[in-house]
């Protein structure tokens, strides 16, 4: 087991600061309980003085969480610290988290305080917090844009009065991995009493470096990482908990550290947050995105089917996903298609596989994702197909709400092609009439139906046509993402059966 890194989750505080991510009391409690199941070390439940709602949420979470430290944020103002304590005093392991900005730009323009006044304010805040609570975290807001010598000074001062955790925030996501590594390492070497406190990092993602910076800080000596589920947070968000935890887990060879998080709860926690906030993660989001364990390309699918580690660096089960996903689409190959057929119970010969694969590729060219229902439809159609006496060459439709529908259809028949134009009561009627003219015979349409095989704009339509022959009814089935094309295929198939006299 390597050095233990504590995971400080701030989904309910900094995460909630993202526009659109506000949660009500019940939702916060539900989320906090899930974070406890996930086994984070610290839950920052809110900023108690921010509002009566925030105060109530911090208080209720403090009361209901038993196995994690529960923290409330507080400015260095006495009223904030007292309020934070009033909310978290019920926690099994309470922590007051106080902060003040240390960069020249924040001190001058925002706080309008001299550096010495900032140090004084920080010392008084930690002293007051210590009167309430043994565990006091101090954050030097905008630390990565602060003068390191000033940082060393304020850190030493707050540890002297009892701060137990020193947090180094990259408040505006400005740092880079090399830089934050040096900053943390510098603190560990230049603050004489640093051994009395833990070093923490809190990285924002403005340059997309929050996770990389957090991991670099661990290399530099940090033992606590502040992060949020799905990386939610101010502006571009905070470091994503799931990426940090799986980074540590997957690259033990580099980081040689461990954390207490129950990785199998990662996906459930991510989904709960999305459900509560209504904000879904993008499909290509690392670890928890819908595509994070999905493979569409034939070469990858084949590799994964032979040996998962060819294209997967983590197993889906580790994050609580039952299995990876083989998406069948236009980039998929025969191996994955055959595997899916077997899974669906189709035992096919080489020829049948070749034929079905051809049809699958035709469909995949038109449709983004071919799912099991599409395949069932392809296979059902494939095995009941009649001899192709007539085949569709092409068709054109001219239709609208203020005109009579007109169709031009061209069919091939015994090596010859014939084309007819017909009008009808709608485009389907017009194509059926054109076909009737081509074969030169009156066809009695017994039934016609159309339904979508799958959902979405690019769903396949399945048309079923029943026509009446002299003795029997002949059924044809047509599939296409174009419903008129599906209808023609169904009609022509029924015709072929009639000509072939293959009853269904
Ligand atoms: C980097 C971070 O994420 S910090 C946390 C940010 N989160 C939030 O701000 C969310 C919750 N915030 C709030 O609800 C409100 O801002 C409150 C309740 C905290 C304060 O509200 P208001 O009293 O109306 O002040 P307002 O937000 O407009 O301005 C902030 C004040 O705090 C001061 N301040 C800012 N940081 C600190 C600090 N760490 N310590 C002491 N004072 C601070 C500012 O100088 C300003 O003071 P002023 O009112 O004397 O000019
Ligand atoms: C208050 C601190 C920890 C913070 O959220 C930040 O600097 O981003």
From TrEMBL:
Q: Which GO terms describe its biological process?
A: L-leucine biosynthetic process
Tell me which InterPro entries the record gives: 2-IPM_HCS-like, 2-isopropylmalate_synth_dimer, AIPM/Hcit_synth_CS, Aldolase_TIM, LeuA/HCS_post-cat, LeuA_allosteric_dom_sf, LeuA_bact_synth, PYR_CT
* Recorded catalytic activity of this chain's protein: 3-methyl-2-oxobutanoate + acetyl-CoA + H2O = (2S)-2-isopropylmalate + CoA + H(+)
Name of this protein: 2-isopropylmalate synthase
The catalytic activity of this protein is classed by the Enzyme Commission as: 2.3.3.13
Per its UniProt record, the required cofactor names are: Mn(2+)
Give the highest taxon in the source lineage.
Answer: Bacteria
Q: Where is this region: Regulatory domain?
A: 391-504
GO terms for CC?
cytoplasm
Protein's pathway = Amino-acid biosynthesis; L-leucine biosynthesis; L-leucine from 3-methyl-2-oxobutanoate: step 1/4
What the entry lists under CDD domains is as follows:
DRE_TIM_IPMS
Q: Which gene encodes it?
A: leuA
Occurrences of domain Pyruvate carboxyltransferase (ranges): 5-267
Where does this protein come from, organism-wise? Anaerosolibacter carboniphilus
């Amino acid at each position: 087991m390597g050095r233990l890194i504590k995971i400080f989750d701030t989904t309910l505080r900094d995460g909630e600061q993202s526009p659109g991510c506000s949660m009500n009391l019940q939702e916060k409690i539900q989320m906090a309980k899930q974070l406890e199941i996930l086994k984070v070390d610290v839950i920052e439940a809110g900023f108690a003085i921010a509002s009566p709602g925030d105060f109530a949420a911090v208080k209720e979470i403090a009361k209901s969480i038993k196995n994690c430290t529960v923290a409330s944020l507080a400015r260095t103002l006495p009223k904030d610290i007292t309020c934070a304590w009033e909310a978290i005093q019920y926690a099994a392991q309470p922590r007051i988290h106080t902060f003040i900005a240390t960069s020249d730009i924040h001190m001058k323009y925002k706080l309008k305080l001299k550096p010495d006044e900032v140090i004084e304010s920080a010392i008084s805040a930690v002293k007051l917090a210590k009167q309430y609570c043994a565990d006091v975290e101090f954050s030097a807001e905008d630390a990565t844009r602060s003068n390191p010598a000033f940082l060393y000074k304020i850190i030493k001062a707050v540890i002297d009065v009892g701060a137990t955790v020193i947090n180094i925030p990259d408040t505006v996501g400005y740092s880079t991995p090399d830089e934050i590594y040096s900053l943390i390492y510098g603190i560990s070497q230049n603050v004489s009493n640093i051994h009395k406190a833990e070093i923490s990092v809190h990285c924002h993602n403005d340059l997309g470096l929050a996770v990389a910076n957090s991991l670099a800080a661990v290399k530099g000596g940090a033992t606590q990482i502040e992060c949020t589920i799905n990386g939610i947070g101010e502006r571009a968000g905070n470091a994503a908990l799931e990426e940090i935890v799986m980074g540590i887990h997957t690259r033990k060879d580099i980081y040689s550290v461990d954390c207490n998080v129950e990785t199998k709860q990662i996906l459930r926690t991510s989904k709960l947050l999305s459900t509560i906030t209504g904000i879904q993660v993008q499909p290509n989001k690392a670890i928890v995105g819908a595509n994070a364990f999905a493979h569409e390309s034939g070469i990858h699918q084949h590799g994964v089917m032979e040996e998962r580690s060819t294209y997967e660096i983590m197993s889906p089960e580790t994050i609580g996903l039952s299995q990876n996903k083989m998406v069948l689409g236009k980039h998929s190959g025969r191996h994955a298609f055959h595997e899916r057929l077997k899974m669906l119970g189709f035992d096919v010969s080489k020829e049948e596989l070749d034929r079905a694969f051809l049809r699958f590729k035709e469909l995949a060219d038109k449709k983004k994702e071919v799912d099991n229902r599409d395949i069932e439809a392809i296979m059902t159609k494939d095995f009941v197909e009649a001899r192709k006496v007539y085949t569709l060459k092409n068709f054109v439709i001219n239709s609208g709400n203020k005109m009579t529908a007109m169709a031009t259809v061209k069919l091939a028949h015994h090596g010859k092609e014939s084309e007819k134009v017909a009008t009808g009561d709608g485009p389907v009627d017009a194509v059926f009439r054109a076909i009737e003219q081509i074969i030169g015979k009156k066809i009695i349409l017994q039934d016609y139906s159309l339904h979508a095989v799958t959902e979405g704009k690019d769903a396949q339509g399945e048309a079923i046509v029943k026509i009446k022959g002299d003795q029997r009814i002949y059924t044809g089935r047509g599939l296409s993402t174009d419903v008129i094309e599906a209808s023609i295929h169904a009609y022509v198939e029924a015709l072929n059966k009639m000509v072939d006299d293959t009853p269904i």
